[in-house]
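Board notes (copied after class):
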Amino acid sequence: MGYGYGMGGMALWWLFGLLLVVGLVLLSVLVIRVLAGGTSGGPSAAPGPPPSRAREILDERYARGEVSTEEYQERLRSLDERS
């Protein structure tokens, strides 16, 4: 009943079927993760390009209290216009 394949041929078909199912499950997980917001998987991951060095310096100065909120926002708009 092995249609000429013997026991070895049947084992290969089982292995192929198992690999096919595993591949479909992995593909489904990948598609779901991409549709749900990416594969980065963490709240620390920010979308878009990394901030420039000028933006990092401005953020640091604002965090230290060296610039006011109004000045920070004004300079931030200026940096965004250059990008």
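Comment from the instructor: The mean pLDDT is 81. The two ends are 70 Å apart (CA to CA).
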